[in-house]
TrEMBL record, chain B:
The reaction(s) this protein catalyses: N(2)-formyl-N(1)-(5-phospho-beta-D-ribosyl)glycinamide + L-glutamine + ATP + H2O = 2-formamido-N(1)-(5-O-phospho-beta-D-ribosyl)acetamidine + L-glutamate + ADP + phosphate + H(+)
The protein's Enzyme Commission number: 6.3.5.3
Gene Ontology molecular function: ATP binding; phosphoribosylformylglycinamidine synthase activity
NCBIfam families, alphabetized: phosphoribosylformylglycinamidine synthase subunit PurS, PRK05974.1
Gene Ontology cellular-component terms listed: cytoplasm
InterPro entries cross-referenced by the UniProt entry: PurS, PurS-like_sf
Entry protein name: Phosphoribosylformylglycinamidine synthase subunit PurS
Classification of source organism: Bacteria, Bacillati, Cyanobacteriota, Cyanophyceae, Synechococcales
Compartment(s) of residence: Cytoplasm
Keyword Ligase on entry: yes
Length: 221, 84
């Protein structure tokens, strides 16, 4: 895995790109490379993280403009090849806007920007993004979002449940998400989108290490 | 080429909770306005666009609405079109 490289996408307005890179390089010794959103050459990265932030100022809707960047256009082939893509917070919003994941993320029920640690239940083992085998089926990760209320119609929700695509659920739903959903995967399992920030929980000195497993799983084939 | 002024209205679908609308409704009641049964907030987008006739322009606007202006998972749209 020496040459395994994770591409960290940088949009105008991304602000968690350096955190993701720090967590991968500093805590897990995984090489990273920043990918400017105008690049469509993904040939030298083995996995991709769409980090949190406010791409294009969240204009129109969160993630709506980012969807049309050359990099997101190139992502379709990358995903089809089975390589892993992790969308965190704004990255999750971009993945739903661009159709890689179903549903949509909209304003929190209480209209607050919520910055807090939340307890999450690990629901599915699809994609092996979380430590299902461990004793602990609950993890604690930070959230920081104003528009994290997951919404989908009832047919989509049924499909998510039936196909085990719900990865994480909030124990105490902070934002009004349908079915307490905090993160979902695609059917293949190689794409995960979640509102909580695993990269902010990778070192005990900043409050916890429950995010390490998810970032580490980027190197899984 | 004909030029058209288009007004696009994007609204949250009726089944989607509109917390900003609820907050504004609450403020409206505090202001003393009576009888408000429902208040929901949407967006209006004004576009000036040219094309060969109304049908061609409608096709362009339909594409814009469906792919960009609205997220049809949570939003509906409608528009009006005026020839300039």
């Amino acid at each position: 895995m020496d040459n395994f490289t994770v591409g960290v996408v940088v949009f105008p307005g991304s602000n968690c790109d350096r955190d993701v890179s720090w967590a991968l390089e500093g805590c897990l010794d995984i090489r990273t490379k920043y990918l400017w959103h105008e690049s469509s050459d993904l040939s030298d990265v083995d996995a991709i993280v769409l980090p949190g932030g406010f791409s294009y100022g969240d204009y129109l809707r969160c993630g709506a403009i980012a969807r049309f960047s050359p990099l997101i256009n190139a992502l379709d082939e990358f995903v089809k090849s089975g390589k892993r893509v992790l969308g965190i917070c704004n990255g999750f919003q971009i993945l739903t806007e661009s159709g890689f994941l179903p549903g949509a993320l909209t304003a929190n029920k209480n209209l607050n920007f919520i910055c807090d640690d939340v307890e999450l239940d690990i629901v599915s083992s699809k994609g092996s993004w979380f430590n299902n085998g461990g004793e602990k089926q609950t993890i604690k990760l930070p959230i920081a979002h104003g528009e994290g209320r997951y919404h989908c119609d009832s047919d989509t929700l049924k499909k998510l449940v039936d196909n085990e695509l719900i990865a994480l659920r909030y124990k105490n739903n902070p934002n009004g998400s349908s079915f307490d959903i905090a993160g979902i995967t695609n059917e293949k399992g190689n794409v995960l989108g979640l509102m909580p920030h695993p990269e902010r929980a990778c070192d005990q000195t900043i409050g916890g290490t429950d995010g390490l497993f998810t970032l580490k799983s980027l190197i899984l084939k | 080429m004909d030029q058209f002024a288009v007004k696009v209205f994007v609204r949250l679908r009726p089944s989607v909770l509109d917390p900003a609308g609820e907050a504004t409704k609450s403020a409206s009641i505090k202001l003393g306005a009576e009888g408000i049964k429902s208040l929901r907030i949407g967006k209006m987008i004004e576009v000036k666009i040219e094309g060969n006739g109304e049908n061609e322009v409608r096709e362009k606007i339909d594409l814009l609405c469906d792919r960009l202006f609205a997220n049809t998972v949570i939003e509906d749209y409608e528009y009006s079109l005026e020839k300039l």
